[in-house]
Amino acid sequence: MNRKLRRANLKASEPTPHEIGNVINSMRQGRYEEAAHRAKGLTERFPDHGFGWKILGTCTLLLGRNGDALPLFLKAAGLLPEDPDIHCNIGIIYYELNQLNEAEYYCRYALKLRPNDAIAHNNLGNILSSLGRLDEAEACFRRAMENNPDLAQAHYNLGCTLQTLGRLEEAESCHRRAVAIRPSYEEAYASLGNVLKEMGRLDEALESWKLSLAHQEDWTNALQRLTNPLLMDGDLTRGPEYPAADAAEGQPHPSPRELSSHLAASSVESLDRKYRVPSHEHDGSAEAGALAKRDGNAPRPLRIVLIYPPLWQIPSADLNVPEGMPFGPPATAGGPVAISRELKTITQGVLSIAAQAKKAGHDVRVYNLFNAPWADIVALIAETGADVYGVSGYNSNRRGMGALCALIRQYHPHAHITVGGPFATTLPLETLRYYRAIDTVVIGEGEETFMELLDHIRSHRPAVGIPGTAWRNGDEVALGPLRPRISDLDTLASHFDYYSSNIVMTSRGCPSKCSFCGNPVLWGRKIRFYSTDYCIDMFRKALARLPVPYLMIADDTFTANQQRTLKMCDAIIGNKLDVLWSCSTRVDAMEDEVLHRMRRAGCQEIMIGVESGSPEILDRMHKGITPEMVLTVTRAAKKYGMLVHYYMIVINRGETPDTLQASIDLIRAGRPNSYDLTPLMFLPGTEDYGHLCQQQGLTSDIFFRNDFMDISVERKRKKDLDTVMQHVYCSIGTIGGYEYTVAEREAVATLLPDVPAVHVELANAYLRAGLFDKATAALTRAEELGFPIGNIILNQHACSALARNQIDTSLDFLERACRSFPDSTVKGNYDKLMAWIDSRATGHVKPCLLCDSVRAQDFVFRADETASGLPVLQ
């Protein structure tokens, strides 16, 4: 009797094979709710048996309830500690929850239990990729493929990793293998298109994206998700509280002694050389001496350090940085972040403020720390003392600004720390509340405000009440009176007296009221101009020190006063400034004669803020333009052979399939030489940002309590944005824009036979058409007319020679160009040709495609560009 009872009790401690089979069958047939219900019943009857917990966790995970699945799997792991599937699933959940260290631990434990598990190796690769450990991720994906050569996702993930590492041909091969294994693999087709685009094979990229779209749901569903709501904000931490300030003050920074191994390899002197923006011999020492001579009792000149900060604390081998708040890399970044060259380049505002301080006799050093690892910054700041530190930043590097100010305060507790730039200008009081190391905020146009601040500091007066500032007074913060804009810009010292840059501004301000633009917050809506004489002098100083005679005029609207524009062009021509330049403008400020004169004065490219092809969207933006105006100006500019670039915003407020189609139709009708598609961004101080806050109940505290870089409609919806973008590109039919035909370029040369750039551009059209003798003749004519950028001509000759299979000749032209100035285009072509020559020796022969651009901006930056983001001085 007792023996029978014991047997019955043993059987009651675990589910029967029939019960197990029913649960498994429900799950395999996709009836997850039913399977979960059955599994839950098993956990209630057999709480100490791991099977029920494992199946319940699996079904919950498959139903998308990751947070609910985690405790179920953890319970199962306690009961079945040797089950690799459970540990693998726990790793997946932690990965989805962005708890990457925990995800790595459980994934590695699963592999310890089952070393040949291809899925687990693939999962671990994804985790390591998100952690930025790309070499380790690559090894994991390759191990997954060794264990299962037909695991399509491993090939796909390896392709994505190789693309990030810049190994594009290998990435292409991986993605092609992935779609061969799984012909409906939409993500692999999309990524293959991205790789092909980066390789310059734009037509192939379009075809790959079309295949991706063919295997997806209707793209309009993605558009609907992107516009409703405007911003995915459910996970945002909201205020008003100030944890960022508490964390900043409590965060210890390593001492130079703790970084001794790092300093041994990189002395402070070498770090100074690496990150300091070089200044010319006109370094302010003469002004300092003159200042002391004028007034022997005057306070001593101040030591000033001006800094452009990194996005956040950048980790390195010398110093690990925790992800997330307050100052680490975004926890949700998912790998390296793509950064534009413009964002890496130190701002003109910082250089202008430095020039005013230098002219006044102060000792000024400027650093671009945008790309600097945090270990370098700690070592540099610890040994770089100053009386005043000024830090300027955008929304994107606001956390780097906060981290840097906290670091300065730790090492230099008695220094005055001030910040400025677009972000602090729009949110001055919030910046002071959250980042307590900061003493003052310089609001808007900063030159006069900063100089008055220096006067207060030199004379030991409190830095409070200064117009154009906000300041800290104990635990309180206060906002000073507005400072009038500088009425006579010619009174400012030119930063070209001290620093080199190819970016120039000939005016400040913009009267337009575009709903998305934050520039008026900084410069104001009233346009103020530098005089023509001042601008010509500025151009001369810039060109005297630049290796390539190219200038980018960074005015909001260069042609806002068309009579002034004509006068400026006449002055460029009259002073024989051999320069190519580009500018941004609006289509309501561009008459035919202005375009003609600009072209004769060296303008090669105009960038137009088109934004949308929909009159409805344009009205909502307050653009004040029509699609017809865009087409009229485009035709006029192309008559004179200018490169025309459209700036387009997609996923605007109120965007629909019809409004998006209107933008597609406008691009196809205008045929710009290039165009940008960017998602709508929400910048503090703009109408669109105000609308977002009103609609979704947000406040500006989100910028201080979250680790995002910027906020746009793309947030948390990258796949949807990619889908819509691919649809737009495929509907337009070109990614890079529209080329001039030979006939169009010949017509321009007939109209402007004495403009050197016209003949270089004609040569490029001949080259692309295979008319090599005509291309050579056109280049010869350009040289006779004095075309100022020799590397463009040498590069065209190199491309022409290679097209004729004259390999040695092509290489010789590229070597000559590199000796002249190793810009990124000619050096890239040289490296590509050398690699191709080497590959021919191994029998691995593919066509060698050199970059044949004649766009001056492509020849400005060295291949080994300096940290400052500025062209290297001659």
TrEMBL record:
MF annotations from Gene Ontology: 4 iron, 4 sulfur cluster binding; catalytic activity; cobalamin binding; metal ion binding
CDD domains recorded: Radical_SAM, radical_SAM_B12_BD
TPR repeats: 84-117, 118-151, 152-185, 186-219
Gene3D superfamilies: Cobalamin-binding domain, Tetratricopeptide repeat domain, tm_1862 like domain
Domain of life, source organism: Bacteria
B12-binding domain: residues covered: 325-464
Pfam family, one: TPR_1
Required cofactor names: [4Fe-4S] cluster
Listed name of the protein: Radical SAM protein
